[in-house]
Amino acid sequence: MAQLTVYKGDITTLAADAIVNAANTSLLGGGGVDGAIHRAAGPELLDACRKLNGCKTGEAKITPGFLLPAGYVIHAVGPVWRGGNNDEALLLANAYRNSLQIAVSHSIKTIAFPNISTGVYNYPKENAATVAIKTVKDFCESQPGMISEVFFACFDAENYNIYVNLLQ
Ligand code: ADP
Predict the structure, then answer these.
(1) How far apart are the C-alpha atoms of 59 and 96, rounded to whole Å?
(2) How far, in Å, is the centroid of ligand 1 from the Cα of 24?
(3) Tens digit of pLDDT at every position of the chain (168 positions)
(4) Mutate which of 33, 115, 154 to test ligand 1's pocket (most atoms within 8 Å of Cβ)?
(5) What are the pocket residues of ligand 1 if the criterion is a CB atom closer than 6 Å to any ligand atom?
(6) What's the domain count of the chain?
(7) Residues 6+ apart with CB under 8 A from 1
C-alpha cells in the first residue's frame, strides 16, 4: 500500500515526482493553487498548457514541471460545487483517479495533491477530503506497487486538520 502523508503548506515546494494542479477547464491559469504553481514553474508552463486545448471537468493532463522541484505537473479539473446533486462527488473522484492513472503511465511514484475544488470552487472541505482519501486508497489498492507515496498538501489549517483526523 502506498504511504499517505499529510503535508501542511505550499505544494509548489514539494519535490515529489509530480504535483497536481487544481486547474480550470481552460488550463490557461487562474488564482489559488493554480496561480502559485504557474508563478513557481515559470512562463514555460503556460506555453505548455496552451498546447493542451483545455481539459474537461474530472479529467487531467500532464506537463513538465519546468522550474518546480517536481518533475511534472498534472493539471486536474475538479467540479464547481453546485449543491451536491450535480455529480460533484463523481467528478471529484474522477479528477483524483485520472491524475493517478496519468501518473502511473509516466512511471511517477510520488505525487502531491492539493485539496481540489475546496477553494473558489466551494466544495465542502470535509466531504471533499473523504472523496479524495477514498479514491486514492481504492486506486492504490487496485494497482499495487505503482504509486509509493501520496502527499495531501493542505494549505489552510481547516483542511490540514480534516486530513489529519481522517487519516489517523
Ligand atoms: P479550486 O478552484 O479547485 O477550488 P483553489 O486553488 O481555489 O482551487 O483552491 C484549492 C485548494 O488549494 C484550497 O484548499 C486552497 O487553500 C489551496 N491552495 C491555495 N494555494 C495553495 C498552494 N500554494 N499550495 C497548496 N494548496 C494551495
Answers:
(1) 9
(2) 12
(3) 899 999 999 999 999 999 999 999 999 989 999 999 999 999 999 999 999 999 999 999 999 999 999 999 999 999 999 999 999 999 999 999 999 999 999 999 999 999 999 999 999 999 999 999 999 999 999 999 999 999 999 999 999 999 999 999
(4) 33
(5) 10-12, 22, 32-34, 36, 78, 114-121, 153, 155-156, 159
(6) 1
(7) 137, 140, 141, 144
> What CATH number does residue 157 fall under?
3.40.220.10
Catalytic residues: 34
- The whole-angstrom separation of Cα 12 and Cα 20 is 10
Complete edge-to-edge strand list for the sheet that includes strand 149-154: 3-8, 149-154, 110-113, 18-23, 72-77, 60-64
pTM for the full model?
Answer: 0.98
Q: How far does the centroid of ligand 1 lie from the alpha carbon of residue 123, in Å?
A: 11
Q: Whose CA is nearest to atom 1 of ligand 1?
A: 117
- Residues spanned by the domain of 154: 3-166
